[in-house]
Amino acid sequence: MKNQWPLFLLFVMAPILVGSQTxxxxxxxxxxxxxxxxxxxYQNEAxxxxxxxxxxxxxxxxxxxxxxxxxxxxDQMMVLINENATTAQxxxxxxxxxxxxxxxxxxxxxxxxxxxxETKTSMQHGFLLTHDxxxxxxxxxxxxxxxxxxxxxxxxxxxxxxxxMVMDACHSGTLAGSSxxxxxxxxxxxxxxxxxxxxxxxxQPNEFSLEGEQxxxxxxxxxxxxxxxxxGLADQDGDFQIKLLEVxxxxxxxxAAEVAPNTQIPMTVGNKSKVIALVDEDALTLxxxxxxxxxxxxxxxxxxGIEDDVLAQLDVPTAQFYKDFKNxxxxxxxxxxxxxVVGQKPQPxxxxxxxxxxxxxxxxxxxxxxxxxxxAVALQEQAQRAINDYLSIRExxxxxxxxxNQEEIGNNERFARYLARAAELLxxxxxxxxxxxSKELYFAAKADLLTSNQEYANRDTFLHAALSKLEAGLEYQxxxxxxxxxMGKVYxxxxxxxxxxxxxxxxxxISPMWPVPYNILxxxxxxxxxxxxxIEFAKKALALQPKYENAFSILISAYFMTERYDFxxxxxxxxxxxxxxxxxxxxxxxxxxSTLEQYEEAECYLLEAQKIAPEKALVYATLGEVxxxxxxxxIAEETLQKAIALDPNDSYPYSVLAQLYREQNRTDLAxxxxxxxxxxxxxxxxxxxxxxxxxxQKKEYQKAWDLFQKAQVFAPEDPLTQFNFFCFCYERxxxxxxxxxxxxxxxxxxxxxxxxxxxxxxGCFQRVKETKRFVRLVKKxxxx
Length: 784
Description:
Blueprint: E1 8-13, E2 32-38, H1 53-65, E3 77-81, H2 87-100, E4 106-116, E5 127-128, E6 143-144, H3 145-158, E7 162-170, H4 182-193, E8 197-201, E9 211-212, E10 219-220, H5 221-233, E11 241-243, H6 244-259, E12 267-269, E13 275-278, H7 281-293, E14 301-302, H8 306-311, H9 316-331, H10 351-358, H11 368-392, H12 406-426, H13 433-452, H14 459-476, H15 481-493, H16 497-510, H17 515-527, H18 531-544, H19 549-561, H20 565-578, H21 583-595, H22 599-612, H23 617-629, H24 633-646, H25 651-663, H26 667-680, H27 685-697, H28 701-714, H29 719-731, H30 735-747, H31 750-753, H32 756-761, H33 772-780
Parallel strand pairs: 2-3, 2-4, 4-7
Antiparallel strand pairs: 1-7, 1-8, 4-5, 5-6, 8-12, 9-10, 9-14, 11-13
């Protein structure tokens, strides 16, 4: 199908019909009949199997059956795929075509498989290799091209039919004709075999035709774009007629761009003004809609046959280097930086190192383009997979992410490095260059963002560095939703919620079926205290991905803040009915009942959660918090320690356990445990505030003040951060300042976090709760 010599689309026409024929089957009163042959699997092991020959044939069948291709029915076609495409079956199919086609009808012959010339004679007869052809002595079992010429001549002259022929025949370097230049000779035979034809060829005589999975999931680049061009994408002047010149220009543009850095330039022979297809408007509209949803894609390619030809001429060391290169593409290492030194053991060369070494071998020159392209593809595959996973949000990825660590930073830095090298290999003129640079900057920015979570002293520096990279990434791809969303997250971290919301909304408009932007918007609105908006966007995220735990948690939290406990119960029960094993629903329902002080029900659901996930640290942490709420300190401590043992890197159980120690006045343990929580989640303003209160209790005022200020940096508008300052000033008997901080806390919604009884029972209020100023504040902010 695709290989060292050109693919042919041969339109063979009787002279009297030249002016009127098109590839629009069944036009007028004439009928259309087709023989379609596609062979990927060969019976004899000495003939190498092909990958996508049968799929190209199947795609051509689908085109003929479509309205755009003439709406041919099954009884108008003889289809021979793989083992059915024997020499005898092909001969019988050609006889059927001669017997069936009448004057004025249209005959279509399509072949996709191997072709070869075995002996170098003056006639240079070529052969189509059928499923059961022998690997040598083709005359004894292959299908000669002069037979095919006889069929076409009979159809076009005796039947006066319009004959269209698609020849997609490859030659492998291990076939019989290799030693005498069989590939080039076959090309010559095919080009001279027929007269009065229009030809559309996949490439120039000295080029190679490529195939790969990026085209239709596994097709040849030429045949893939040929069918799309004939369907209507080649119609440059919009007159719903496809002329040969339009097909030529369309294929040159598409094929040459997508195979780079290989070279493959399709060519045509014939009257350029001839109309060869008519356009079905509905099919074209559907095709255009599909193309709009596609994103630039690049995959590894095969140049069938040429690799075998080249390798057969290599010395043993060079052949081994090439084998090592292909192995490194599959299994790594891809770049020198990936090589891990282990003792004195010799380390393997990276794919990039091997590529540079192989470029010094002139005998490999025919493979330079494929080597460069396949290395560039391997370098971008892991990064693209990471983006695809982020955009798809599969079920196994919808759980709330744990705190990002150094390994994730390293992965993002590696992806950025890979993409930079891929872009360098392909060059600025390549159609994927801008996409690669955009993604390179995206991953570099992600590394900065992850680092900002660990380098708190320079957090803003890393955030602004990430923002700069993301903006540069948008210069390359202005509609990249993952970049727009990251910009929204950066602005959220910088406290600019208006810009954060704007960028998140842009991402959701570009990708309306992607739940992540709605989840981020829900979180931003929640942090601003706009719980109705948070509920709206969290619902949108859950509608797109019902198991999106982060969105589910935001929705539940918004319901908590608005005291809609009946909503929480209904939502959790609904989620459990949909999926009895949905752990998040059991956990949130347990917390809801605990908030309502219905502890028996809370424990019931959390113990059910324990049965679902007996080794899940979060289950024990949540259950421990419920025991803590009931002041069952012993079992709470035991359960929280179990959670920590299961996942020592989760800050949640540390934080609850530290609060337990603080209430028990076990201040040294409280400090130690709060510090452990902050080690994993340094910007947890609640733990910072609680730790500050412990130091305040110990009268270590400077430490307390520093922690309260740090908490305020991370949550400047949170009422609990203002309440911490109130406690600090109250403890130091600074009444005026204390009331100023308390009023700020009320202004920012303190009563949403603590009910009146909790407020007045707090130790800090014992001396002020009867004062006029305190009573006035409580009344002013809606509490009797």
